[in-house]
Specification:
alpha/beta; 16 helices; single chain; 8-stranded parallel barrel; 14% strand
Length: 369
């Protein structure tokens, strides 16, 4: 599994390699048809900052070749904020004094119906805290079966599971799984996740192998920008993606780069990424992997998302509420993160069309299951 592969790479040596890249390394990477991991490190390095316009043009070209003028639309459904973990940066931290809500199936159905009224969504991301007794596999299976009549494509962002549990959920309508490794720095990981099942680094990082072995159709990856040095973290993630592509080649992949915000409990990000740096990372990932789906959530501001639509991003959320029950009421439950783009899904779709692109609400059909 990937944990064994990861041990081949030293964090500090990787950081040193990135920050020692030169303009010549960047220019070499931009000339290559198939950049390797060293080229990727050059493209995310400080040395690449003066080349961002060339990177944007190349990223746009590769995106047009693989995806055309399309932006895939999705929306999250938060079903539970109950969590046994103690992640220091998360609003759902077990120690935070907030109202814990786990939707029952009637509430899930009502949320699905409310989402359908917002726009013609077919891609639903089901999100839950990690509390196996309340929102474990049995509960998630029921949620999937409840949501399936309303949506053609169902993805989950929940606790890492056993291979047999992922397979079981694929038989109940599951198409994809999103999981954020948070950080690939194993020692630092333990300080951010001091207690709970999530504190076991090896279990989490090997979860992607279990998804692939279970035949999950699409796997989403990401690190949290703000925990450790983002350049080193995304390099480790790029290595992870390469490994997964070689090992589980039938699976599709997506990446996301959420920037951390201050959280309930006083957490402040250790690292702040600028818009220009996020754009550089997006371009670098598209140049490195022409086929990967690059997703931006409503964490990002409308004007930034607008600018990135033509330059590498291929999927976006819209109309997001990040607390359980958020689509049918204004609940007291705390949001997991603050939404920066509060426009309605139809407003976002109108903007996509105004830019000459097509908003794609559906890319999977029940007949393929």
């Amino acid at each position: 599994m990937f944990y064994d592969e990861l041990k081949k790479y030293d964090w500090d040596s990787t950081s040193e390699a990135i920050y020692s890249m030169t303009a010549a390394d960047v220019e070499r990477a931009l000339r290559k048809k198939r950049p390797d991991i060293n080229d990727f490190m050059a493209l995310i390095s400080p040395a690449a900052a003066p080349y961002i316009e060339q990177m944007a043009a190349l990223s746009h070209r590769h995106t047009m070749e693989r995806f055309g003028k399309t932006i895939s639309m999705y929306i999250p459904l938060y079903v539970s904020n109950a969590c046994t973990n103690h992640c220091v940066y998360c609003g759902f931290n077990h120690d935070n004094p907030l109202q814990r809500v786990t939707l029952d199936l009637d509430q899930v159905k009502a949320e699905c119906e409310a989402i359908r009224r917002l726009g013609p969504f077919e891609n639903l991301l089901i999100v839950s805290g990690e509390f196996p007794r309340l929102n474990g596999v049995d509960y998630l299976e029921q949620v999937l079966r409840t949501a399936r009549p309303y949506f053609n494509n169902l993805t989950i962002e929940v606790m890492p599971m056993k291979e047999r549990d992922y397979y079981r959920l694929t038989q109940s309508g599951l198409n994809g799984v999103v999981c954020f490794q948070e950080t690939y720095h194993e020692q630092a990981y333990k300080t951010y996740h001091p207690r709970g099942m999530k504190s076991i680094f090896e279990w989490r990082v090997n979860g992607f192998d279990r998804m692939g072995a279970a035949g999950v159709h699409k796997i989403g990856m990401g690190v949290l920008i703000g925990l450790e040095d983002w350049r080193t973290d995304v390099t480790m993630m790029a290595r992870h993606l390469q490994y997964l592509r070689r090992t589980y080649w039938r699976t599709r992949y997506s990446v996301n780069f959420p920037r951390m915000c201050p959280a309930e409990g006083g957490y402040q990000p250790k690292v702040v990424m600028t818009d220009r740096e996020l754009a550089q990372l997006t371009f670098a990932f598209r140049i490195f992997d022409h086929d990967v789906d690059i997703s931006y959530s409503t964490r990002e501001k409308p004007e930034f998302r607008r600018g990135m639509m033509k330059l590498g991003v291929t999927s976006m959320s819209a109309g997001s509420r990040t607390e359980p029950g958020g689509y049918i009421s204004t609940p007291d439950a705390l949001e997991q993160f603050e939404v920066s783009d509060s426009r309605t899904p139809l407003e976002v779709a109108d903007e996509i069309r105004a830019l000459g692109y097509e908003a794609v609400w559906k890319d999977w059909d029940k007949s393929f299951d």
